[in-house]
Amino acid sequence: MEREIAETRNEEVGGLDPVSLVLPSSAEYVMLARLVAGQVGRLAGFEPEDVYDLKLAVTEAVTNVIRHAAVDTYEVEYRVIGRAVEVTVTDAGGGFQRSDLTGEPDEQGGFGLTVIENLVDELILDSKGDGTRMKMVRRASEPGGREA
Q: For residue 60, which of 28, 35, 78, 34 has the smallest C-alpha distance?
């Protein structure tokens, strides 16, 4: 899958450059993806509950890659955009059709995308025969429970 790189100016991302990890497709590296997500959320000014949700969404996304993509490595890119975090998980696996997913749990899983959709404000999924790209956007909540 050809990688698309978005042009951004530092003032658009709060002066922070994107962080990108290329990780082995192994459960031992899920915690690393999760830890970086937590730190990026804190840099975006997230409340602890927002950080937790972001970390859980990233955990679900990378676990899906490990379980289903049959790749050696995958990439996770984190961007701080104001008081929001954009995380893109990209793999070069065989892809899938979302319509083929039943949404019912089975031996292959079944809840991952539903969980992610409930944890983030925006989810864009692009899956073809040459890989999958999942972009998740989580915005910081205002103190007191309202979103920014």
A: 34
